[in-house]
Design goal:
The complex is a heterodimer.
Chain A (H helix, E strand, L loop, with lengths): L2 E8 L2 E7 L7 E6 L5 E7 L4 E8 L3 E7 L7 E3 L14 E8 L2 E7 L2 E5 L7 E4 L7 H4 L14 E4 L7 E5 L3 E5 L7 E2 L19 E6 L6 E5 L2 E5 L7 E2 L8 E7 L7 E6 L14 E4 L7 E3 L17 E3 L7 E4 L5 E4 L7 E4 L5 E9 L1
Chain B lengths: L1 E4 L14 E4 L4 H11 L3 H5 E2 L3 E2 L3 E5 L2 E3 L10 E6 L5
Parallel strand pairs in B: 1-7
Antiparallel strand pairs in B: 1-2, 3-4, 5-6, 5-7
The chains are: A mainly beta, B alpha+beta.
């Protein structure tokens, strides 16, 4: 019988949470990857391999891989570097399993590909030629969070078409397999001066609904929706307690249903008022519902990072998120009620879900 | 032959890599390169492109802080240290 596995990237290694069919009882395995900070871990169902992006203060950036659900691990960073001087890679922010290859979004901003299961890597793009790119790419202009690529999102049916985010710069689309890019930031808000019309937007998270043209975006300033594949964006923040947050998830079968975790927009960046909640819209952002049954409602200053929430593809989808304080929460009723699947993990960077045969 | 001592964080990353081993090499970088031939990818774990030592990796030759170009004599002791950082 297939199992549901949560892949949890933390400040101190990768963990797996496994459940049989009910998705209510979870068994913890780990830590893996020798306690390295893991920023994103994904599962390739075609090969049964787990990949985990690690970045160590001492030993740099590498991609871990396990072909046997965590029993054995190897790592490699061959080719995962910039050849020009002064641009040392600080980490890989995101991994994407993509039809026979693995994509890595790195910081400083670059997209790498591996076609041999993570053993060697080739640089695909640094988004050369975009207005302002020279300025955002200068090492001395890098802010503390750097300007990485925290998302590479394949189009579900069009080969060679992807959306990518560059932190603090915006969303970009390629339709020719990473050769050229078009900014997709029209209609977004920015509360700061920008040198160029189409870049300088702080896109935190993009998720695609089952309708490829319908996507949602958690931005530094507001929630947004597109109905035309990213050609234009409409703000849908009204009704949420905060315009700020990182994590988001789209319902796998309903284009109008979408989940976010609003956070205090100050530097604390935790759930407002110490009360944990996920917020849901079922009408494409016209109205929002607070979902907090089973989540702590007192003294709970939880943060959730951009890869910290995910949703599975079951008929009644399971929704999962991990916190900066090491809890993993799970819901199997569309977010109406929650259980705590893990309580005392290290600070969580990412949660992804896989169905494993 | 120089006597190398590696940080404890390194052997778990490479099959059969010991913490202490002897290497016949004229410089620190040559010694690390020689290890990389036997354990591919080891150079990347200690050095940035260049190569230059990673920020928190320190090397001492016979008790003195050294860089990658430092020369090794027969019997030199080379300590590769993962400096205290993080938490």
């Amino acid at each position: 019988m297939p199992k549901t596995v949560l892949l949890v990237g933390t400040r101190k290694g990768c963990f797996l949470l496994t459940s049989e069919a009910d998705r209510r009882n979870w068994e913890l395995q780990g830590p893996y990857c020798e306690g390295w900070p893991i920023y994103h871990a994904v599962y390739d169902r075609a090969t049964g391999t787990i990949y985990a992006a690690g970045a160590s203060e001492w030993h740099g950036t590498t991609i871990w891989r396990s072909p046997d659900l965590g029993r054995t691990w190897e790592q490699s960073s061959e080719g995962l570097a910039y050849d020009d001087g002064g641009r040392n890679m600080t980490k890989v922010s995101s991994l994407t399993v993509d039809d026979g290859r693995l994509l890595a979004g790195a910081e400083p901003a670059g997209i790498f590909s591996s076609v041999d299961g993570g053993r060697t890597w080739t640089l695909l793009s640094r988004l050369e030629g975009h207005p302002g790119r020279a300025a955002w790419d200068e090492p001395e202009n890098q802010p503390p969070g750097h300007l990485g690529v925290p998302a590479i999102i394949p189009h579900p049916s069009e080969k060679g078409r992807y959306l990518a985010i560059i932190q603090g710069i915006g969303a970009f689309e390629t339709t020719d397999d990473f050769a050229t890019w078009t900014a997709r930031n029209k209609g977004l808000r920015s509360d700061w001066p920008r040198e160029f019309d189409d870049v300088g937007f702080c896109v935190h998270k993009l998720v695609r609904s089952p309708d490829p043209d319908r996507m949602y975006q958690q931005n530094h300033v507001g929630m947004h929706r597109t109905d035309d594949g990213g050609q234009s964006w409409t703000e849908i923040t009204e009704g949420l307690p905060s315009e700020f947050g990182f994590a988001a998830a789209a319902h796998p079968h309903d284009r109008d249903t979408f989940y976010v975790v609003p956070l205090d927009p100050g530097h604390g960046r935790t759930m407002p008022d110490g009360k944990a909640a996920v917020w849901r819209t079922q009408d494409a952002g016209n109205t929002w519902q607070r979902l907090d049954r089973g989540l702590p409602q007192r003294d709970a200053y939880l943060g959730v990072l951009r890869e910290g929430m995910t949703i599975d593809g079951e008929e009644e989808p399971g929704l999962y998120f991990g916190t900066s304080t090491g809890q993993v929460f799970a819901s199997t009723d569309a977010g109406d009620t929650w259980i705590e699947a893990a309580s005392y993990l290290p600070s969580i960077s990412s949660v992804e879900v896989a169905v494993v045969d | 032959m120089a006597h190398l001592r590696l940080p404890p964080t390194l052997p778990p990353l490479f099959a059969d890599l010991p913490r202490r081993l002897d290497v016949d090499a004229p410089t620190v970088v040559a010694a690390i390169t020689k290890l990389d031939e036997r354990w591919p990818g080891l150079l990347d774990r200690l050095c940035e492109r260049g190569p230059t030592l990673r920020h928190h990796i320190h090397v001492y030759v016979d008790g003195r802080r050294a860089d990658l170009d430092a020369t090794l004599a027969d019997g030199s002791r080379v300590d590769v240290i993962a400096a205290i950082s993080g938490g």
